[in-house]
């Protein structure tokens, strides 16, 4: 049977796949809840739809099998049949056969399904499961071994491959003698098919995000059965997708995850914090294995270790020793690469090694239909413009003829030439073109506006896409810091452009990390301060007509202004006198400077000064603005204002030295005409009095260094204002108000912003460029940059001072008892330009300390004679060594030892298990 009509064929393929998937999921649920009448009703409804669809397109074999399945479901509902494992298996076989028949109907390839044998099996299963012929089956979970479950999953997954792959790639065959399905899975984990690779990556990321979010919710509400059911569905879907394309290591881990969730549901084990950590570790491992399958690069994940950790956590979480802990763990494929065993894997939620990218967007078909309608309108307009072009050619021909006639008038009798006729024809053509062009221009404006709006709508995604990623981050970081933190999210339903979500993910991650690491106190510290032991971080979003605002607020200790000042002086950025003249807002902004960190103890994730600089850079790239508000002892707020559109903006146009510039209209408070009497000059500051408030102002030509520009000739062509009045643009960035004097105010205009050239990357105050209707290139200025330039101009002594250069190479004391490690680190340091003196243990290091004037110490912790902690504490007893940087490099990764290092007086703590040479050199560069 083959469906001839292409449209019907495609519709039937889609509906058949969806209905079969629903039937399979429902049967899986029914195995665990045989008394769930609602699920039975849903299965009856879906099978009835499948039967009706098949009858309409004439696939009678599917009608026959679906009718029999429907009868069995009705018998189960009436309790005339007991839902045994045998009945379940026969129903799965029936669905498998239907899947093949659907595939045959949409591709025309014969699959050889023996309908009679399938019907016999279904009938026999019902007869064997009559209540009077069987012992009463207890209401507990049917006794199905994990091996049988895997086999049945293999059967259905193979069917799914078969009828989904209509391009002719048959991934399964059926044995007509025994109805046993076999699968030709891909041997290699790498996915060769590019389309399947993208689909699998997208689906897996979604399943893993849902699993992580559901698990986080389950920790807070362990009795929520609906969430457990959702987690089971997500795990089952991920397992099925992975088996379809042959990623067997993911199948194995996901199956084990599924079994644990089932055990939790049966109340055989409890969801302890330790088990939660291991489940998260399993999800992280699965994510790495998915990435391995997608990009084809080995992830070096020790999946066996993850399974062993899971089993250990399960043993500790068992409610009764007599209860079964978990089904037998399926053996992992031998090809899983093994990594050096570590107790914990780095959670992907804590890293930002890869740019966050949203590769797919789900679009409602009505939006696509609307876009297609606009494309059709464009085609009509294109044809009309082509007709107008023909009229222009005709007019040009008339003009050429008229010129030829005019040149012959001196030789011919002009009365014989009908010049009026040419004039009338030209006038008629010109009028027709004028009307036509006006109509086309209006129509194109309408179509352009509608296309722009619809495409913008298609690219909109809810902020929850990014916000939900932060829940896991908060939990992991709080646990690492031995803190208790609750994340409260508001406004996640607000939508924003896809690019905004991609760009804002890392800044939000850094701000949350900064809040937990720097702002939030430990539970004991909070109780001493009269605060609840559980801290709170609020992640809020709200929207105005032109902006989206995102706030990250914590109720921690707030920013320490004095500590920020000390760091600025220590890094030789500003002098104490310069800092005294700064406002609190300006001092808060210092923490956004590159490499700025008030943390005195450095680890791989804290104190390196690379977090908030990323925030500032990303926000400015999005044409946004960041503000910091802090109240000592009460908390801190980071507020990000972002434009809802990135490519198109409304700007105010004006001239400076004859050159047209633009400013985003959302930053413009008002435009003024200022008289000399309103300008107040005090030392290096120029202000105007506006409603009783002194507002900082400057000549924009001076700020942009255009005062010596010759300008353009047209500067003298416009009517000059009276010399007593100067145009001024008043801007507002955050809470700061300031103004600029310009030569002439023009108008507002909607423009397309284009990024400026790489050659102009280092030019200050520019956010982009645009092309005006006249063809001129117009520079769009960045108000945030202008504010910084203005503040520096009014404080000329405030500037970044060059670091003091050391004439000789910095000298490092390397204390390490392992010869191979000592050799490796010595080579690394010398290659980086340091001189190195080595010591073989802590006591040797202490004795060599006074032999040279060292710039820093790099030391192991576990050493004979004197360990690294004791060495550090002993060194700090000497006042002359209080400022000497000490970096500990060790395998002791727990928080307790990190605290010991900090208490002893070390400046940084690096773990050997995650030893990163760049991290060590970066920390040395900062400290030396």
Please state the CA-atom Rg, rounded to the nearest Å: 36 Å
Structural class of the helices, strands and pairings?
Answer: alpha/beta
Mean residue pLDDT: 76
Shape: flat
Largest beta-sheet details = 6 strands, mixed
- CA-to-CA gap between the ends? 79 Å
Please, what is the CATH homologous superfamily of the largest domain?
HPT domain
Count of distinct strands: 25
Q: Which fold name fills CATH's third level, the topology of the largest domain?
A: Four Helix Bundle (Hemerythrin (Met), subunit A)
Strands side by side in the biggest sheet:
12-16-17-15-14-13
Task: Itemize the secondary structure elements and their pairings.
Blueprint: H1 6-32, H2 37-57, H3 60-77, H4 85-107, H5 115-128, H6 146-164, E1 172-174, E2 181-183, H7 194-220, H8 225-245, H9 248-265, H10 273-295, H11 303-317, H12 365-408, H13 419-458, E3 460-462, H14 464-480, E4 485-490, E5 495-497, H15 498-519, H16 523-528, E6 535-543, E7 547-554, H17 561-570, H18 576-580, H19 584-589, H20 611-621, E8 625-631, E9 635-643, E10 648-656, E11 659-664, E12 668-674, E13 679-682, E14 685-690, E15 693-699, H21 700-703, E16 726-733, E17 736-741, E18 744-752, E19 766-771, E20 777-781, H22 783-793, E21 811-815, H23 819-831, E22 835-839, H24 842-848, E23 856-859, H25 868-876, E24 886-890, H26 895-904, E25 908-911, H27 917-927
Parallel strand pairs: 4-6, 11-20, 15-17, 21-22, 21-23, 23-24, 24-25
Antiparallel strand pairs: 1-2, 3-5, 6-7, 7-9, 8-9, 10-11, 10-18, 12-16, 13-14, 14-15, 16-17, 19-20
Helix pairs in contact: 1-2, 1-4, 2-3, 3-4, 3-5, 4-5, 4-6, 6-8, 7-8, 7-10, 7-14, 8-9, 9-10, 10-11, 12-13, 14-15, 15-20, 24-25, 25-26
